[in-house]
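User: Please predict the structure of the protein below. I'd like the answer in structure-token form so I can feed it into my own downstream comparison script.

Assistant: Understood. Taking the following sequence of 231 residues as input:
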Amino acid sequence: MAVLECKHLTKQYGHVTALENLNFSIEPGHIVGLLGPNGSGKTTLIKLANGLLTPTSGELLVCGAAPGRETRAAVSYLPERTSIPLWMTTTQLLDFYQDFYADFRRDAAEEMLQHLNIRPKQRVKQMSKGTREKVQLIMVMSRAAKLYLLDEPIGGVDPATRDYILSTIIGNYDPEAAVVISTHLISDVEKVLDEVLFINQGRLVLQSSVDQIREEQGVSVDELFREVFKC
């Protein structure tokens, strides 16, 4: 069964069409890059999959069900902006996630936090921006979810932090799960992607495996992206 499936999915905000007639599916065990220019509909798609928005027409299914109470337990969502409470200490954050999510793997989170030398009593507000982003990602990836939705997980952080974040993503998802990464930093994430979705002005332009792009087109995903979306 597909982890994420869209059938003639359309989303409109008044007279503005954000997504138009999207049809695709994502299978378990894949890390998928959701790629497109600003305003192409990437964040709208992620919010629909997370149940924060509802489709105008068509349908979106997570593990065969429409987003709702049943699918929330299967989806782990990283929003574009840091959303963990700044007043919490590291221990309070772990307690919060453990109480809120039945699938939270506290031992995995603690191991990664220890690797970053983050103290149990350190408050989130005392951390640098890059460290907060790492901590939030650790919390998201420490759930045993079926679908991970990561909206710009490496935006605004230094290259070393990007490498840590990408290695965390690769090492902490179940082979039966799927990961969707929305990003502009294609050359940075390309090495971890199995598949890509190109979206432009709310429409699906391309769905392809990364290997297929390299073998059939003889270019990298970043080069193909620049060609497809050149001004």
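That's the full token string. The longest helix spans residues 129-141.
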